[in-house]
Amino acid sequence: MTAAAGHRVVPCQPPSSGSPGPGGDEDASFDGPAGDSSDGSSGGSSGGPGGGSPGGDGTPPEDRRRVFRRRLITLTIIVLLIGVPAGYLVISASQSRRSGMDKEAEASAQGLREDWPSGMQRRIFELPVPGNAVGVQYYETNNWKASRMYLKFRTTSAGLDRFLSGVGTGRAALETGKVTISERDVKITGWVFGPGVDWAGTVHRNEDPRPTQDITVNMTDPASPVVYVVSSATP
Hints:
- Helix content is 37%, strand content 17%.
- By secondary structure, the protein is α+β, with helices and mostly antiparallel strands.
């Protein structure tokens, strides 16, 4: 009893989770060999053969073909955005010019139209046809460079004066023996300005965009002159 009283009593501690229980086998806490445990942990971290990613963000590097294809598509879009509008403008200008030439050729083939130009046409081309005019013929052509009105009529001496005054000129401006209609306009209209006729002509010029009139008059019969006019306006 005396010896027992001299010793401290140590409380009984519960066994730890890593310690084997009483009478237990230390190897019983392992499910398998140490090699199996290490293989499982290493396999989970590596993700298997080829599971590792070359990129830091987990995205594989872009293939060269894909890069080339993307750049090619971008270049094609840029070319279309720039080239299509420019091509359209060139084609449009070419068509406009060709259309104007076709209209002139068509007018030349059909000849002058036997009628009065409309009031708007007379105002635009500044052609104050006198009210007593007879045998009025005209046609109009338009292209990308200029618009023209071709006009022919017969009037009286007083009617000629009114016409010239309305244009902004006068009989004194007419030069005897002068034909002011160009060869180009002669080919289009079919007008003939041959010898044996008392021709007189003048050119009345205005600042753009107002038209300029090339006027030639057959004065063989002063009481019944025939007036030829080409009024050209530049847009």
